[in-house]
């Protein structure tokens, strides 16, 4: 029962991760690269407020999150680049509302990014004055890693990453290790809050396909080797989820120049310990896919509409969870639940993992006051999510969905992103999830966050 409650709490708190991921993308896009020679430094201060109702534990959880980041960058002739970013993080929970009941407020400090990059192509260009036919970059250190469209991998790693380009072809290779204390994809109590995993992967991408639009097809391979040790050690349960992924997809424009698409299909194989297993491991055979269409209208207020379909295979004989070892796969059977290390926005109030789900997403946004200077960069938008089980009798990541029904429920999110000045941005998002027949408790779940970022 404790494992089930922890899994539900973790699923609901993934709404916080959605905010953090969107902030991460915004900050990483601002890594300085324009100055070919010299030193830059700066930082950000972020404040965010979260409140959501934990229907499983009948608690209204409230969090104030304070984060201070400082960065420094040195670039020498575009050939050698050094980047470092530190983080001070303080999580202030209302009394008795931290999902980790044994903890109060949380203060962390650490090195968020630290890497060195060598660009051979730029060095040859500096020496000859001509762009070389092929280029080569190597990056070493702590950096955010993705592969494909980030469906399979989207996490910070201590790693070596290589990019090689020749004409329209690009080869990427990575070898890395997870950060100490990072959250595990396994929600089992003894392993959920730490992991020790090694990754290596290769991706080949082509950027020269122009037929009924512009397309960038890719293919990749990624392997995960799990060396995580449970705390405390459980003599009745072993943990190790070793997985391999082969992905195929494409990104680009389709027919119309403003019609963007993204598509990926991935197969998963590997070995895992099933629920209660201490010796033999069982096979993993799973798959997932993602398809996105997004159209931007070239008119006043810049309206944009989108449709996305997400699928992750499920396993009908998993006991209570699609993502945990404890309460997971039945011993002696193949595990068909898709579990990976990527990221997708699946709604802030429900925010399930992808395993054993079909998710249909409709979205739209616009800039209603763009003619007024103060509000010209204020975007209003909405997303609607519909959730359906792949295997009606199998579990999902939220262990409260105990009924043998394919209808999981739906969610409606509203949001505003406003760049007030070049140094100040504001965001707010509200989501409400209405559980379906898969749940005994049909109480509406609500989640609200709002945040402001100052750059300096």
Explained architecture:
This protein is mostly beta strands. The chain has a single domain (2-455), classed as Porin, CATH 2.40.160. Helix content is 8%, strand content 53%. The chain has helices at residues 2-28, 120-128; strands at 37-54, 59-76, 80-93, 106-119, 134-147, 153-166, 169-178, 197-206, 209-210, 214-226, 241-254, 256-272, 282-296, 304-312, 357-366, 378-389, 407-419, 424-435, 445-455. The protein has an 18-stranded antiparallel barrel. Strand 9 (209-210) and strand 10 (214-226) form a beta hairpin. The longest helix has 27 residues, at 2-28. The radius of gyration is 23 Å and the shape is globular.
CATH architecture title: Beta Barrel
The number of helical runs is 2
Provide the gyration radius in Å.
23 Å
- Compute the number of strand runs: 19
CATH topology: Porin
String of helices and strands: HEEEEHEEEEEEEEEEEEEEE
Overall pLDDT, averaged?
91
| Low-pLDDT stretches | 1-9
Structural class: mainly beta
> Given the C-alpha coordinates, what overall shape results?
globular
- The CATH class assignment is Mainly Beta
Q: Note the main sheet.
A: 18 strands, antiparallel, barrel
Number of domain units: 1
Portion in helices? under 10%
Which percent range describes the beta-strand content?
over 45%
N-to-C span: 47 Å
Keywords:
single chain; 456 residues; mainly beta; Porin; 18-stranded antiparallel barrel; 2 helices
């Amino acid at each position: 029962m404790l494992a089930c409650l922890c899994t539900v709490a973790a699923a609901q708190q993934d709404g916080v991760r959605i905010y953090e991921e969107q902030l991460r993308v915004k900050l990483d896009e601002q890594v300085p690269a324009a100055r070919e020679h010299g030193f830059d430094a700066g930082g950000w201060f972020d404040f965010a407020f979260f409140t959501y109702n934990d229907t499983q534990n009948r608690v209204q959880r409230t969090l104030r999150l304070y984060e201070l980041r400082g960065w420094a960058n040195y670039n020498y002739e575009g050939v050698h680049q050094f980047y470092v970013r530190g983080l001070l993080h303080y999580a202030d929970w209302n009394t008795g509302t931290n999902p980790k009941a044994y903890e109060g407020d949380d203060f962390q400090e650490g090195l968020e990014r630290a890497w060195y990059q060598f660009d051979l192509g730029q060095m040859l260009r500096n020496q000859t004055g001509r762009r070389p036919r092929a280029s080569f970059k190597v990056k070493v250190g702590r950096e955010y890693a993705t592969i494909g469209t980030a469906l399979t991998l989207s996490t910070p790693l201590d790693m070596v990453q290589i990019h090689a380009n020749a004409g329209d072809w690009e080869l990427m290779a990575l070898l890395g290790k997870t950060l100490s204390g990072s959250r595990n994809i396994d929600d089992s109590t003894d392993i959920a809050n730490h992991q020790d995993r090694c990754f290596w992967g290769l991706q080949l991408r082509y950027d020269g396909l122009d037929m009924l639009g512009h397309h960038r097809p890719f293919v990749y391979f990624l392997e995960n080797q799990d060396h995580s040790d449970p705390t405390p050690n459980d003599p009745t349960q072993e943990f190790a989820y070793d997985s391999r992924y082969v992905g195929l997809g494409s990104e680009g424009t389709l027919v119309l120049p403003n019609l963007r698409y993204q598509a990926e299909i991935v197969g998963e194989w590997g070995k895992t310990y099933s629920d209660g297993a201490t010796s033999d491991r069982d096979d993993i055979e799973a798959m997932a896919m993602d398809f996105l269409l997004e159209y931007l209208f070239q008119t006043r207020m810049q309206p944009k509409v989108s449709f996305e379909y997400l699928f992750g295979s499920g396993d009908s004989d998993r006991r209570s969870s699609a993502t945990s070892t404890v309460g997971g796969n039945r011993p002696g059977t193949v595990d068909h639940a898709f579990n990976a290390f990527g990221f997708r926005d699946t709604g802030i109030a429900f925010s399930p993992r992808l395993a054993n789900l079909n998710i249909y997403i409709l979205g739209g946004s616009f800039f209603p006051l763009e003619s007024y200077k103060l509000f010209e960069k204020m975007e209003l938008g909405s997303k609607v999510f519909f959730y359906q089980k792949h295997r009606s009798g199998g579990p999902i990541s939220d262990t409260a969905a105990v009924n043998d029904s394919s209808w999981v429920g739906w969610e409606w999110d509203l949001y505003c992103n406003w760049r007030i000045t070049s140094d100040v941005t504001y965001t707010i998002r509200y989501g409400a999830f209405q559980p379906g027949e898969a749940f005994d408790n049909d109480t509406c779940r609500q989640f609200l966050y709002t945040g402001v970022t100052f750059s300096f």
